Prior knowledge:
By secondary structure, the protein is α/β, with parallel strands linked by helices.
Amino acid sequence: MNKLVFRFNDKNSKNKINSKNILGGKGANLAQMAKLGLPVPPGFTISTQVCDYFYKNNKKLPKSIVNQTKKEIRVIEKITKKKFGNLSNPLLVSVRSGSRVSMPGMMDTVLNLGLNDETVVALKNKTLNGRFAKDSYRRFIQMYGNVVLGIPSHFFEELIDNYKLTKGVLQDTELDENDWDGLIKNFKEVIKEKTKKNFPQNVNEQLWGAVNAVFLSWNSKRARTYRKINYIPDHWGTAVNIQTMVFGNMGQDCATGVAFTRNPSTGTKELFGEYLINAQGEDVVAGTRTPQNIIKMNKDMPKIFKQLKKIFNQLEKKYKDMQDIEFTVENNKLWMLQTRSGKRTAKAAIKIAVDMEKEKLITNKEAVLRVDPNMLNTLLHPTLDEKAIKKIITSGLPASPGAASGKVTFSSDEAERLKEQMQDTILVRIETSPEDINGMHAAKGILTARGGMTSHAAVVARGMGKPCVSGSSEIKIDYEKKLFKAGNIEVKEGEIITIDGGSGNVMLGEVPTVKPHISGDFSKLMSWADKYRKLKVRTNSETPLDTKTARDFGAEGIGLCRTEHMFFEEKRIISVRQMILSNSSEDRKTALSKLLPYQKGDFFEIFKIMNGLPVTVRLLDPPLHEFLPKTDKDIDNIAKELNISHQDIKSRIIELHEQNPMLGHRGCRLGISFPEIYQMQCQAIFEALAQCKKKKIKLVIPEIMIPLVSSAAEIEILRSLVDKTAAKIQKEHSIKIKYYVGTMIELPRAALRAKYIAKYADFFSFGTNDLTQTTFGISRDDSGKFLNDYVENKIFGKDPFVSIDERGVGELIKIAVERGRMEKKSIKLGICGEHGGDPASIDFCEKAKLNYVSCSPYRVPIARLAAAQSYLRKKK
Ligand code: PEP
Ligand code: MG
C-alpha cells in the first residue's frame, strides 16, 4: 500500500484523486470545496483502502499510516500555526467517518480531539475564554467516552441534568467555567470506573483511538442494518476525515448550522435550514436547544448570510444537484464543513429534477436519471402521516405499498359483510387463497402470517393497489378464538389496526394517512421518460377497475390477464366447482357453458377499456383443487346445488389433492387433460371480440397465452385447439380477427427448449415467479421463513423473488431469448412475473433485449421511469 492519506487541497499533488471510492463522499466533497477556493478548515482523508486493510488484517492498521498521518498533521500545523498537543497554541481536530454514499448518523465521529488537562488551559489562555475551553473539553470527554471507550452517553447526560437541577438552571448555556470544571472531574471518574483506566492524556493515543473507533463503526449493528436495507456492499468501507476544529461555540459572533439549498420536503427553490448562535454542530441535531430558521441569519449575521447564499449557488452549479450543507461561523468567519447531495422526498426529487432542467443546470435526460423509481411508490398510494404517533406491534414483508386502517377481520365473508355496512377492515389471514378474492376486494388492506413477496396475497394486493403486509411470521392467528397475537399483544376481531405496506409495519389503532398528489412535474418527468425508453410497459390486470387504473398510469397494453381470478365471484364459483367435480367431458361442457357468458363479459369490458392495445390473456393456470370448497358448510351448499352427496364431494376433493400442487396438474397440463376448458376460454375471447366489432369498438389484438409449457409438443397441440376455435367463431360471425398465440416461459426446460417451442409461439412471456421457484427449487409461498438467513449469510444479495437472480434465472432468460430468436427473429418477448415492476430487474430486461415488461397497475409509472433510466444508462 502506498498513498493512503490525501490532503483536501494538495496543490502539489499530480495525483488528481477525487474519487468517492477512495476518499468517501465527505472527503471527496471537502477536497472539491477546497479546490473551488471555499473556506474549508485544513485537513486530510485516510482512504477507504485502509478500512479494507483493517478488516482483512485482524483490525490492525497498516504501518505506513502513522508516518503519512504525522506528515499531514505537520502540514495542518504549518497552515494554522497551531500545534497538536502543544501547550501554548494547541491544534484540535475532528475525526469523522465518510463512506462512498452517505449513511447519515450510522457511523461515529469524535470532535474537539487534542484536548487534555494541559491543552485545555492553553486553549483558555489563547482564547481568553475559560467557559468555552472547558465546555469543549467536557464535550470531547463525553464523545470520546461514548464512541471510543463504549460508555453509554446517558451516564454523562445524567450528570449534566442532575447538576442543572441542583443549580436550578435549564440550559447548558447557563453553566459557567467552574460548573464545567466540576463536571469534567465527574466525567473522568465515570471513565475510570467503567474502563479501569484514566482518560487518555496523550493526544496521539487519542487520535488513533478515534481513527480505530471510526473504522470499527463501519461494522456496528446500525451501520450493517442500514447497508442491508439500502443494498450498500460491505466491502466498500469508510474513509476517515481528520480536520482542523473550528468553533461555533466561542461566543455571540459564532454559530453553527445545517442547510439545504432547496426545500427537501417540497423541492421549492428556497433556503431551508437551521442554525444556532454560540453552539457546536451536535447542539443543532441533539434538540437540546431550539435552532433558528436559517432565514433569520439575514438579520443576525447579514454578511455571513450573504456569503453563504453565494456559496450555496456555487455548490449547486458545481454539483448540479440540491446540496445538504454543514457550516460553522467562528468569530465572524465562515467555514464550510460538509456538502453532499441532500436526501429528499419523492415529491421534492421530481420538482428539483424538473426545475433544474428549466434552469438549464441539467438536461432532461439527466432529470430522468435523477429520480429513484422506487420512490414513486410513495406518490401513488396514501401514506402514513409522518407526524402521527405510531404504536408498532410487529412487522412483515412490505408486499404492497400504501397504508390502511380498519377493523381486524379473519374471514373474507366478514370483510364483505362489513363493507356493506361501510366499515373499513383489514383482512388478517394465515395466508390467502384465490377464494379470498372477495374479502381482499372488500378489505382496505391485507395482513398475512405466511407468504413471500410473490405470494397470492402480495400479487393480488399489488394488482388491486391495496396495501399488504405478508409473511408477518411473528403473529399467531387463532381463527377459532378470532384473535391474533404479536408477542405479548393480543388483538381481537373488531379491534382497529393500521398496516403500512411500504415499510411492513403493523400498528395498533388508526394512524392518519395522507392522500397521493400527482403534480404536473410528475407527468412532465414521465413524458421525458417515455421519450427515452425502449421497453414497452404493460400491466398485469384482470378487472375493469385495475385495467382503467393501469391505463391512467400509462400502461401500453395488458401483459398478463390471469383468467382464474375471474372465476371466484359467488355466481361463478358454483359452476367452476361443478366443472371440476364432473366426471365426464359432457358434464364438464355443461358447466363450462354456464361460465362462458361471464368470461365473455369480462373480456368485453377489458377489451373496451384497452381500445386497440394488445391484451395477453392467459388460459387457466392454477391446480383445480384451489377452487374446491374447503369448509363443511361450503361442501353442503355445493352438494345441494349439484345434487351430489356430501361424501361424494369429499372423495373427489381427496382425489384431487396433490402433494406438490405447484408442480402438479396445473397450467397447460389442464388444457391437455380437459381441452374443453381452454376451448371455452378461447370461445369467450373471440366472441367478445366479435361483440366489440359489432359495437364498433376498436379491436384489441389478443395474445392468447398458454401457461407452464415445458415442451414444444404441448404448445403444438394447444395452439391447434386455439386456432380451431378461432376459425370456428370467425366463420360463425363472418369476421376476420388478428390474434397471436404464445407461451409463458416459466420452467427451466422451457427456456432450454425455446428454439423448438418458438416454432409454435408468436411470443414468449417470462413468468419469473414460477421460473425463480423452479430454477432454485424454492417455494415462492413459503421461502419467507428462511430467505432472510440467506440474505444475512450473503448467499443471496437480494430476495430472488423481488429482483431477478441474473446469474441463474437471468441466464435461463438469456438462453431462451437467444434460442427463441434463432428460430423466429420476430418473436415478441416480455416479462410478466412480479419482477416486471422492479427497477433492478427492468434493467436486466433492457440488457436482455426484451420488448416489454408487464407489472401491476400501481407499478406502471415506476416501470416507465426505470425503463428509461436503464436505456439511458446503457447508452452512457
Ligand atoms: C409467473 O409465474 O411469473 C407468473 C406471472 O404467473 P403466476 O404468478 O400467475 O404463476
Ligand atoms: Mg406462473
